[in-house]
Write a structure and sequence with these properties.
The protein is mainly beta. It has one helix at about 20-25, and strands at about 30-35, 35-40, 50. A three-stranded antiparallel β-sheet has the order 1-2-3. The mean pLDDT is about 90.
Length: about 50
């Protein structure tokens, strides 16, 4: 039997989120990390921008 250990670098070990689910209809979401708040935005070209 082959045993594999998942690590943080293993994509299967990381959560996967669809950016459209996070941002909703307006394409914007706020993400908090500690006491900092960031804005996640989907551009008209379909790119993601994360700003402080």
């Amino acid at each position: 039997m082959l045993h594999t250990q998942m690590t943080a670098a293993d994509p299967a070990a990381m959560p996967l989120y669809d950016a459209r689910d996070l941002t909703g209809r307006d394409g914007l979401a706020q993400i908090r990390l500690g006491d900092q708040v960031y804005t996640l935005r989907i551009t008209r070209a379909g790119k993601l921008i994360l700003t402080k």
